[in-house]
């Protein structure tokens, strides 16, 4: 019997990601994949981001990945944004095929931004293209200043790095110079935005980054 060899998991994932990106491009939707350890502030920042986009009349949507529960989706559901929760069961990251299923639940027409909140994990999500246009990596001060060198694959791929919870820097005696030192060896391309969802520091800079990325997507089409 002839043995069929299915292309490896990453190749299959990549093919589907290309399809997702094509669909998003056709609709002019900028898709950003937000990745970090659990608890670094992805959902909190998304709450602020959606509120700002809502206030400016900019339509947006979120696909939220978690192993279990719809807790994050519930936190995000009080505005106009379309929210879809994806439960991965035992999966430590989202796959492009799960994103395809999520996209089918969304009305993409007229949408400006699609945010993907990936499963909280600093290893697995780094290897899976979902069809996004940009990768956003969060690192909170509470996690320490040594994680960039420890998890280089994730930080290498970042298009922007958000150093979150900077309001806690004083109490944590946080030395951010190590973050910038490590990045000199790992990623000199991505801007770093120092941000606090509590005080609002850096949030406008983040919103500007998003709007510029969407504009460059539109300019390309
Ligand atoms: N002090 C402080 N706490 C924050 C900030 N952003 C998020 N948090 C808190 O950090 C915890 C985890 O945040 P969450 O958004 O759920 O993280 P996620 O798991 O990455 O989605 C929550 O208790 C938030 O209130 C921030 O900028 N400053
Ligand atoms: Mg979350």
Q: Would you kindly provide a written description of the structure presented here, covering whatever features stand out?
A:
The chain has 221 residues and is an alpha/beta fold. It has one domain (9-216): 3-Layer(aba) Sandwich (Rossmann fold), CATH 3.40.50.300. Helix content is 40%, strand content 18%. The chain has nine helices and seven strands, in the order αβαβαβαββααβααβα. It has helices at residues 9-26, 42-55, 71-76, 96-104, 147-150, 152-157, 169-172, 177-186, 203-220; strands at residues 30-35, 60-66, 82-87, 113-117, 134-140, 160-164, 192-194. Strands 3-2-4-1-5-6-7 form a seven-stranded parallel sheet, with helices on both faces. Helix 3 links the parallel strand 2 (60-66) and strand 3. Helix 1 packs parallel to helix 4. The relative contact order is 0.18. Residues 36, 38-44, 120, 164-165, 167-168, 196-198 line the site of guanosine-5'-diphosphate.
The fraction of residues in strands falls at 15-25%
* Bound molecule types: guanosine-5'-diphosphate, magnesium ion
CATH superfamily name? P-loop containing nucleotide triphosphate hydrolases
- Compute the number of strand runs: 7
Largest sheet: 7 strands, parallel
Count of structural domains = 1
Concise description?
It is built from nine helices and seven strands, in the order αβαβαβαββααβααβα.
Task: Quickly list its features.
40% helix; binds guanosine-5'-diphosphate; 7 strands; 7-stranded parallel beta sheet; binds magnesium ion; Rossmann fold; alpha/beta; 221 residues; globular; single chain
């Amino acid at each position: 019997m002839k043995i069929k060899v299915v292309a490896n998991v990453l190749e299959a994932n990549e093919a589907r990601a290309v399809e997702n990106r094509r669909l998003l491009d056709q609709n002019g939707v900028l898709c950003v994949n937000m990745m970090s350890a659990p608890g670094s502030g992805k959902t909190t920042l998304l709450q602020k981001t959606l509120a700002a986009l809502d206030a400016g009349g900019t339509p947006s949507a979120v696909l939220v990945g978690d192993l279990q529960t719809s807790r994050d989706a519930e936190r995000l559901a009080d505005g106009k944004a379309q929210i879809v929760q994806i439960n991965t069961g035992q999966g430590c990251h989202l796959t492009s095929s799960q994103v395809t299923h999520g996209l089918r639940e969304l009305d993409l027409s007229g949408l400006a931004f699609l945010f993907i909140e990936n499963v909280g994990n600093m290893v697995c999500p780094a290897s899976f293209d979902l069809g996004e246009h940009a990768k956003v990596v969060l690192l909170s001060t509470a996690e320490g200043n040594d994680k960039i060198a420890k998890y280089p694959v994730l930080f290498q791929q970042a298009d922007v790095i958000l150093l979150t919870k900077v309001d806690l820097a004083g109490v944590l005696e946080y030395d951010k110079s190590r973050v910038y030192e490590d990045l000199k060896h790992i990623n000199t391309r991505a801007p770093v935005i120092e941000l606090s969802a509590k005080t609002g520091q850096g949030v406008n800079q983040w919103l500007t980054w998003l709007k510029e990325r969407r504009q460059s997507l539109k300019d390309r089409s």
